[in-house]
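Hey team,

Sharing the Chloride channel protein run so nobody has to redo it. Sequence (773 residues) first:
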Amino acid sequence: MATMYPRASSTGATPSEEMNGTGNLMDFLDEPFPDVGTYEDFHTIDWLREKSRDTDRHRKITTKSKESYWELIKSLLDAWSGWVVMLLIGMLTGTLAGVIDLAVDWMTDLKEGVCLSALYYSREQCCWTSNETTFDDRDKCPQWQKWAELMTGHSEGAGAYVLNYFLYVLWALLFSFLAVSLVRVFAPYACGSGIPEIKTILSGFIIRGYLGKWTLLIKTVTLVLAVSSGLSLGKEGPLVHVACCCGNLFCSLFSKYSKNEGKRREVLSAAAAAGVSVAFGAPIGGVLFSLEEVSYYFPLKTLWRSFFAALVAAFTLRAINPFGNSRLVLFYVEYHTPWYMAELVPFILLGVFGGLWGALFIRGNIAWCRRRKTTLLGKYPVLEVIVITGITAVLAFPNPYTRRSTSELISELFNDCGALESSQLCDYVNNPNMSRPVDDIPDRPAGPGVYSALWQLALALIFKIVITIFTFGMKIPSGLFIPSMAVGAIAGRIVGIAVEQMAYHHHDWIIFKNWCRPGADCVTPGLYAMVGAAACLGGVTRMTVSLVVIMFELTGGLEYIVPLMAAAVTSKWVADAFGKEGIYESHIQLNGYPYLDVRDEFTHRTLATDVMRPRRSEPPLAVLTQDSTTVEDVETLIKDTDYNGFPVVVSRESERLIGFVQRRELTVAIKTARQKQDGVVSSSVVYFTEDNPQVAEACDPQPLKLRRILNLSPFTVTDHTPMETVVDIFRKLGLRQCLVTRSGRLLGIITKKDVLRHMAQMMNQDPESIMFN
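Structure output:
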């Protein structure tokens, strides 16, 4: 028998074990199974197990590091690998963001005209390099020509306007068609914002391919096309997806992260921070966004690494300098007057508007997306994108505030009116006797340009509110930050001008008397636009702390934190009155992802026995016994059921719980045993016991011992445990399933899906909407 089992003695087996043919039972298990520990697509990871595996790996490395210098060097490299990954993520994310910014600027301007001196220059770059641009006509330069002027030689007149209009719509349709076609053919996961899915992935869900190389490439290209088409969407949300794709890419280079789904999610949390850092030029806001909005598990170590990744990403973007202003921020502002206590009233009203807009947008958008999923509309994504783009372009062109890119619009709305501004919004009636410093211009009566701009802004506001509801969620990359900020900035600027004119014409009113004297610069309309933008973004996403930090990093307006905080908190309160979920949580619910939100409260008085499976009307629980189940029984059970794992009991009569075994590991173990271990056949008995089984006779089939894959400490609760406690355990420990026992006897099982369905049922929602495990 010793020759039959040549490796038995090397494992320390006794001669009697060799004679019984059991000395090699663990031989094929000495090395890790291929694929054991990995998870199937659309399943949830086991956080406790991943944490335990990482602790074991770390302990092994620490022990080995004391054996030799080479092992010590390897342990140091392992310790530094996290920082190296962060460096690589920051550099690649910053580079991609810079390229996207430059490409969007050029392609957005391409819809209106072209630079003759260099085709790859945007309008602004073209006029920078021109020596013939005058101060009065600084928006025009001979090198930049609109399409009508280039084709017909005429820049004015009805014919030129119609031709420019037609080509604007044509370019928009071409860009959006290319975007939706590339997404549809090469990377279906590259559509949408990506943040709902990132939140779900960070909570422990597996979506294979969502952070893959193809998704990264196609999302980067189609994001440029989608934003350039002029649709009411932004690039900020998708940049978080792009950054997480970069994080996933670099995780595959280090086994520490590629083989542990829990550690991988720590890297992805930091990558999300880097994405927001380059999206807004807000490194600290990015870290807080990852902590407050997207991350599920965020230890202190991840906080430091997120900070480092955001720093490197911001530094890389600053080195590329896509905005050409030597600043990292997108909408730098410089206001010359402080805000006054009385202004908190309009700021809070803007917060109320932001909350109402957020509630309206979420309800409207979710209703439209549900219609898209349940009707024929969902079968024609290309047609939907083309139609929405056509409507957007046709309605946007006549209004100068909707024709330009949304980022340019927000930048103009945030601006303070200085002496050098040529915008319609700054067309005030000047006092010819005024002799004041350029930076301190007093409040003045509005001129015809301001009133004209107000009408155009009011129309732009209605247009943006309606079209954004239908745009977000189409099968192209689409962010929500910039459109939401645009809605708020337009509303804020209108309110700001109204307050400014009231203060000018009625400075003797009691509300203005104490702080606004005639001839003083009292009200800054740009500040109201900034507060409105924060309010609307907060109403849609329900962000608070990270939102305020992002806004002051975005604009450089550090002294205006209190107005921003007042608006953000008010918008959250108002929006929460209509529904607790933000737009991302609503889309997670719509898609049926198993996301257990930490912020949800469970106050119902139900017990574990009310939720566990099997119910009275269902067949008994599928279990394995410790020493009486054959390989054939196990394979039949795996074939006939789709459970993620099976409890192991002493016997079917006693049902005393021993442990839990994962379906995937059981499948791989049996397959590997059949290939590597002689004598394992369908009638072989599977053992989960500690002692090696005895083979009664030589003719009996070789037994198969699988104790190594058995989880001996599965999480258990009693049948009278309150569901409030069970929900808390699932949230805080990231469990996949929990076994229900009474006095050590197995009664049933509760999975994450069961918990989510029970919570939905308690809130009078459809429990069948939770589709995944």
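The longest strand covers residues 745-751.

Ping me if you want the raw files.
A.
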